[in-house]
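Retro notes - structure team

What went well: the batch runner handled both jobs without manual restarts.
What didn't: labels got mixed up in the shared folder, which is why I'm recording both outputs here explicitly, each with its sequence directly above its tokens.

Job 1
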Amino acid sequence: MPSFRFQLFKPQFKKSHTHGSRRVSWFAAVAFVLVLPLNARAEFIDHIVAAVNNDVITWSELRQAVDFNRAVAGAAGDEKTMESETLEGLINRRLLIQEARRLKFADVSEQEVGEEVERFKKRFASEKAFNDFLAGLGMTVEQLGRMLGERLFVERFVEKKIGLFVRVERDEAQQYFDSHPAEFKGMRFQDAYKSIIALLTEKKTGQELTQYLAELRSKADIRLNSLT
């Protein structure tokens, strides 16, 4: 079965914010401020932009995610839209991580996280280019590892919870082949069969995941604070 790649931040699932019962105090009623010394004359002010059940998402985490999307995926759009969509992606990720931990369906080792970091490093021409990339985002290797580890963790959970139960029948693949002749010029059905199965499996998995996230949201306590 093809691996389903869950996007790290930017969501594919456009859902309204549904709130459950209050199970956690919403700290953003009074701005949560974290002061970190950057140098003798400057300080960094952080605050909570969202709470997902008992987990918080901070402004610095959101901004780092937006910048990461732009740098890695070439994501485009106005800043407010990018922030809003990226926040949705972070909320989705938190919900899936919480559910995966509750069900104990997935696990990722430190070695596997290290391997993910090494694979990511290979995108760059040199160690210096990699380090410059991280420095430009204000990100450490440990933070990158945490991001990539969470992505792998979510992907494994989605594959076990949803992907293993997604099936694409041969007649569905044949119907897709027949209805998209421009995509398969000069190809026979049997030559395109595996790629069509992979495509339709990913599409079905995405649809199931959209529905699953809607269910998680309906039970979750999601609180949003102003992004400005």
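Job 2
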Amino acid sequence: MAKDFDLIVWGASGFTGKLVVAYLAETYGVRGDLKWAIAGRDQRKLEAVRRECLAESERQHLALFTADSHDARSLTGLTKRASIICTTVGPYAAFGTPLLEACVNSGTHYCDLTGEVQWMARNMPRLQAQAEDSGARIVHTCGFDSIPSDMGTWYVQQAMLDTHGVAANKVSARVGRSKGAASGGTVASILQMLEEAKRDPAVKRALADPYSLYPEGTDKGLDGPDQSTVLYDENFGQWTCPFIMSAINARVVRRSNALAGFPWGEDFRYSESQLCASRARAIASTAAMGMGMVTMAFSPGRKLAQRFLPAPGEGPDKKTRETGFYELFFHASHPEDDSKDLRAMVTGDMDPGYGSTAKMLAESAICLAQDPLTVGGGFWTPSTALGESLLSRLTDNAGLTFELIAID
């Protein structure tokens, strides 16, 4: 059945949602080939977003809708109007399940920014069969978590296959220089996960399991727990420390390999960490991260941290977003000859948590809405659902670069 809109942005009046709206308005307009609308809970806030992001002559061409995030009937009515719902409303474990279920039931494609492993692990096996039947393509983690990691690994593996005819049996992702502000949404999601883990041992196990996002019934691979200490990386010739987002990104990358039918092998291994200028810097960063996690592991510490960390809906000013950047490196290890190893670099031209994330989410949504994709309904990752189409959109429109670089 034909839908009224290609996509609807849900949560358009939130901080990140507003960035997505501004990006769509500037890049695609409201009277072009892309038919889109905005939605949220508060009519007045949506009207304010429309006034802020569009010239007066254009506002009438951007439709807006309201719905109740906990009312299945109103959400179903919303999802039936669009080919895809693009949502920025988190924490998703607290607010996202009814919308996800509505999309699955109505056959509407869906993408979000979640990095909540426990929420994804809970819903994927529960709703997979329904999504397959309805044709709804569900793609989580369409922001800095985890598009650069997932697409960067896919990119370097494609290069390895094209160049040497075999896949790398190991990819080492290393985060290089970056500049950006902490994401209030990410902070809220971490706090939500910690609260759930305290109440439910199953959640704690899911967060610790490196294969918690593997398709149901798939045998686990060879990777162990995420890096938690200072390590020296021989390939990069640098010390490394843990990278907090690896707890999300690594599981997404491993899921991609499994969903694709193990083109990189069932023994494929992936690791992700932060490059450091010195051993001392790596030790200091590891200690700071450890202290932070210990503090937030207990309710009093979480309450104290919330006083100093950004809240959901808060974010950096335009200058901070536009002067931000990031770079990630992906070292692909040839299974037999290390002289044939390859290395790729992925960069973004804005701060990772807001400016770049908003653009990545928007392009993922348009890709799901308009591009000729080959996968059917179900729960996918960015690389397995969107692949080459998303790569083109990211490099053409969203300020990302993907390139092979020389190995020092």
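One thing worth noting from job 2: The mean pLDDT is 92.
We'll revisit the folder naming next retro.
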